[in-house]
Design goal:
alpha/beta; TIM Barrel; Lyase, Ornithine Decarboxylase, Chain A, domain 1; 2 domains; 9-stranded mixed sheet; 8-stranded parallel barrel; 12 helices; binds pyridoxal-5'-phosphate
Length: 417
């Protein structure tokens, strides 16, 4: 069960706030490294080597990508700026996976120039890629399992998703790719998002293993790796159970032993593209209470808003909140915790039980290390915050400065008004 703790106290945060005005993000380097090592350890049995390609969209900061690279992770990119970011963090060639969809030609060209592993989202992308960038030696394709043959209680409704190729297209796609000059092959799927059931990931592996064998039998194309995608969830709510990577790994290993050697595909590499579970729990949004308002309900207004962290407003997602310095105080009050957007869904929490909040208190919003700052936007003229790295030696380094009004105006020309 997850406990919700903060790796710094009120005094530490107040010191930070003297240099970096609230709100700001803090990422815990030590915890991120430990999580990356857990992946390496859990999947050390994988023949030919396991790698998680960190989904850059979850936390697109080159300093984080560099830390993860040092711990053996690659980068999973889906746009030109994400490819450039990975490059700037020192990632090269097949350390980068390019899993995009509805892809502009120029992005395939960049991915090809970098020697990234290109993962195609559609059968028509073979000709598109050949025309604009050329078919690389190594090619991967994304499978959409659709309504699975025997049905599947675990995997939801992939047929509603815009991604990937159908089963017949997969068989045809690899045969065509081979004719077009590809010599090395990978197979990908991604059907989960923020999923806490470990069996889900084992099930995904079974689907890919069986399909890889089927492709081999039908076309002679031999997969070099399968990519199970991302989607491992995190326990946003206190008491939720985190996914046990070792349990997932054991389940996948059993499936591997059952399917892969007899299917003639041993050794087969296994890779993943997780973002959320790597950095999500290790990012904290620190914000100050600036208003208390009592009307039909009680509100605490923060100096952060939905532009800094969109998940609660957008999905109604739960993010735990700690009032710094009041960790041991009983949660005797019930508040809505809001931001300042002129949108009524700009609430970090609704009917949340918290200790009494005083104006000036620092509140920490938990599990903001993935799909947090990254989703930020400028609606209502709101500026995105700084990102700080709490380093292993306890010192703090700013890895992104806060936006300024000048940044906000950078794309406007006020001349001639
Ligand atoms: C978003 C995404 C991921 C990462 O998902 P997480 O939930 O952050 O693990 C991986 N692969 C693809 C293709 C994605 O779209």
């Amino acid at each position: 069960m997850s406990k919700k703790t903060v790796p710094f106290d009120r005094g530490f945060a107040e010191d930070l706030a003297k240099k970096h005005p609230t709100p700001f993000y803090v990422y815990d380097e030590k915890a991120i490294r430990l999580k990356a090592r857990e992946f390496v350890q859990a999947f050390s049995w994988v023949p030919g080597g396991f790698r998680n390609f960190f989904a850059v969209k979850a936390l697109p900061n080159p300093h984080i990508l560099k830390i993860l690279r040092e711990e053996g992770m690659g980068a999973d990119c889906s746009s030109l700026p994400e490819l450039i970011l990975a490059e700037k963090a020192g990632l090269r060639g097949e350390e980068i996976m390019f899993t995009s969809n509805d892809t502009p030609a120029g992005e395939f060209v960049k991915a090809r120039d970098m020697g990234a592993v290109i993962n195609l989202d559609d059968i028509t992308h073979l000709d598109f890629l050949a025309k604009h960038a050329g078919i690389p030696r190594l090619i991967c394709m994304r499978y959409n399992p659709g309504p699975l043959k025997e049905g599947n209680a675990i995997i939801g409704k992939p047929e509603e998703a815009k991604y990937g190729l159908t089963r017949p297209q997969i068989l045809e796609g690899y045969a065509r790719a081979k004719k077009m000059g590809a010599e090395r092959f990978g197979l990908h799927t991604m059907v989960a998002s923020n999923e806490l059931n470990p069996d889900y990931f084992v099930e995904t592996a079974v689907i890919l293993f069986e399909l890889a064998v089927e492709v081999f039998k039908a076309t002679g194309v031999r997969m070099e790796f399968v990519n199970l995608g991302g989607g491992i969830g995190i326990p946003y709510k206190p008491g939720a159970v985190p996914v046990d990577l070792f349990r997932v790994s054991r389940g996948i290993r059993e499936a591997y032993d059952r399917i892969i050697p007899s299917g003639g595909l041993h050794p087969l590499r296994i890779v993943t593209e997780n973002g959320r579970c790597v950095t999500g729990p290790h990012g904290y949004l620190v914000s100050r209470a600036i208003h208390e308002k009592n009307i039909y309900k009680r509100y605490i207004g923060l100096d952060a808003c939905m532009a800094n962290l969109m998940r609660p407003g957008m999905y109604g997602a739960y993010h735990h909140i700690t009032v710094l310095g009041k960790e041991g105080v009983r949660a005797s009050e019930t508040y809505d915790v809001t931001g300042s957007l002129c949108e009524n869904n700009d609430k970090f929490a609704v009917d949340r039980e918290l200790p009494p909040v005083d104006m000036g208190d620092l509140l920490v919003i938990h599990d903001a290390g993935a799909h947090g700052h990254a989703m930020g936007f400028n609606y209502n003229g709101k500026l995105r915050s700084a990102e700080l790295l709490l380093q292993e030696d306890g010192s703090v380094r700013m890895i992104r400065r806060a936006e300024t009004v000048e940044d906000y105006f950078a794309t406007l020309d006020f001349g001639g008004l």
